[in-house]
Amino acid sequence: MKKWAVSFCLLVIVLKDAYAYNDSLLTELQTTMRKSASYDSASTRNIDRLKQSLRDSGTSLYSVFNWQEKIYEAYKLFNYDSAYGYAVRLVNTSREMQDDRYRVAARLKLSFILLSAGLYKETYDSLSSMATRSVPDSLKGEYYALWGRYYYDLAGYANDHYHSVDYDIAGGRYIDSALKYYSPSSFEYNYYKGLRYFKANRTKEASTFLEQLMNSSSLSDHQLALTASTLSGFYLQNGNIDKAIDLLIQATVADIKSSTKENGAIFHLAELLYKKGDIQHAVMCIESAVANAEFYGARQRKVQASSILPLIEGERINGIEAQKSLLIRYAVIVTVLVLTLLVLAWIIWRQVRKLKQAQQALTEANHRLEESNRRLEDLNLKLEESNHRLEELNEKLEDSNKIKEEYIGFFFRADSEFYGKLDKIKSDIEKKLLERRYDDIRFFLNKIDTRKEKEELLHSFDIIFLKLFPNFLAEVNSLLREEEKIKLKEGELLITDLRIFALMRMGVTDPEKIAQILEYSVKTIYSYKSRIKNKAAIPGEEFEERIMQIKTL
To answer: 52, 228, 480, 491: which has the fewest Cβ within 10 Å?
Structure first.
């Protein structure tokens, strides 16, 4: 018994040292988590008010853009799907405005939301679509900062000693460029300056900037969460895990109050609590983190959760098993003692009751583990769906590349022939000018038949298109009623009706562009399209979709 008492005291001392971080902060975190639904409801009501303002804003594109931007800002860290939808609306609205500043601003917001969801390739494509010279100075800070964040996130995703180093270097260069466009008194300047020093392992300078921000009373909840989360990395590098946990708790509390569902602080907090042996709070954090990732739709967070959740749950079960084994040993000792001393019967009764409680806790843990497995299965199904969508996108990209390759070659040949003709015309005219044969020049110019040139160009288009889509006529006819099938005359490749849909299959879907190419009015183009759709055996909208699904050879 004396030996058992000493062991118990040592266990209490070890547990006390293990949880040296701030208990009051953990209490605040638990309280804030219980209020999470009310914070989210407030955010939802605010978004509803903004949507109503958008509906009442009238037809002014600037007003529409302004309200769409506010709704996007409310969604961007709250729900990926909704934020992405409004980012796309902003891009479309900016196109109608024909104002480069609004166009770039909309594209930056789309890039931000793609990066927040972990869509790295799409983020790269979106940012790459903006040439640096087209970005106004007022947006260059945000533009370069997004590039920096993109490479820093790639470094964290790669998490190795090879690619991550190069990604961090590239991210640092972009952050240096971004700092030139931020005011030294702004939050962005001080935060990115601290982050830049931190990534360069200049931890002392990094902590100076970040500590100053933490002491500022003007930070929003999201800014506080961002600063505290980044500063925790400094303390973690220096081995002060308890201080890192305190900062991550502050960041998580601020994220909950601002209804920020896309965040990494709570994942890191769960991991550190797990390493400290605080399984109860680690489980609380990881379950909340998984719920946030599901709600927001952040792919990289789901992957992050799948790597740590089994470890925490496993440790939790191991703890219960260890407790069960310990209680069994105690029960044996008590049983032996009760044979010699009936006074210890009360102790045996308490141990048996604790054993039942442990068994009940184990049953509950098994239920939670089964629920976790079901969640993992759901995540796997969603991952399979994402892979399927990626395969479809790859097929479309391959199709697009084939078209581009063929038409790049075609237009190079067409340009070469065109410039050859121009050189010959130039040479002939210069020769006749030298010989003062002006009537011959007029006769020569009258021989140039632009209409014929246009027909030859369209004929060339028909040839190259049918090379890519040799079954195009058969595919179109398969969509038409039997009596309405198109029959070409001998020597014909494509007629105007087919050529319109051929251009659409090539990606030219704007009726005005098609009208310019074919030298018809837009009304005539619509008339041709309607005439073909009326002959179709399927609805008009489905007809166009089926046309766009025709495969290349």
So the answer is: 491
Q: Which residues sit opposite 536 in a β-bridge?
A: 480
264, 226 Cβ separation under 8 angstroms: no
Q: Which residues of 301-321 are buried (b: 16+ CB within 10 A; e: fewer)?
A: bbebbbebbeebbebbbeebe
Distance, CA of 190 to CA of 213 (rounded, Å)? 7
pTM, entire model: 0.52
Contact yes or no for 226/250 (Cβ under 8 A):
no
- Burial tier of 231 (Cβ tally within 10 Å: 0-12, 13-18, 19+): buried
Residue 548, pLDDT > 60, answer yes
Structure tokens at 250: 């502050």
Tens digit of each residue's pLDDT (9 = 90 or more) over 184-206: 999 999 999 999 988 888 888 88
Q: How far is residue 235 CA from its own chain's centroid?
A: 29
Instruction: Quote the tokens at residue 181.
Output: 């466009």
| Helix and strand element counts for the chain (H, E) | 24, 0
Cβ 306 vs Cβ 88: under 8 Å: no
Judge whether 101 and 131 are in contact, CB under 8 Å.
Answer: no
Q: Residues with Cβ < 8 Å from 444, sequence gap 6 or more?
A: 425, 428, 429, 432
SS3 266: helix
Pick the closest to residue 399 from 506, 503, 473, 494 (CA basis). Answer: 506
User: Which DSSP state fits 258?
Assistant: T
So what's the pLDDT on residue 264?
75
Please give the distance of CA 513 from its chain centroid, rounded to a whole number: 32
Sign of torsion, CA 347 350 352 355? negative
Segment 384-400, tens digit of pLDDT? 886 777 676 566 556 65
CA dist 11 and 375 (Å) reads: 35
The Cα–Cα gap between 205 and 193 comes to: 9
Give the CA radius of gyration of the chain. 34
Which tokens is 174 given?
Answer: 């972009």
User: 483 pairs with which residues across the strands?
Assistant: none
Of 161, 106, 164, the C-alpha closest to 139 is 106
Q: Tens of pLDDT along 328-349? A: 777 778 788 878 888 888 998 9
Residue boundaries of the structural domains of the chain = 42-130, 410-548
- And the tokens for 496? 């105007």
User: In this structure, is the dihedral angle defined by the CA atoms of residues 251, 256, 258 and 263, taken in order, positive or negative?
Assistant: positive
At residue 277, φ and ψ (nearest 5 deg) are: 90, 5
Residues 136 and 377: their CA atoms lie apart, in Å, by 46
Amino acid residing at 120: Y
Q: Are 136 and 100 in contact (CB under 8 A)?
A: yes
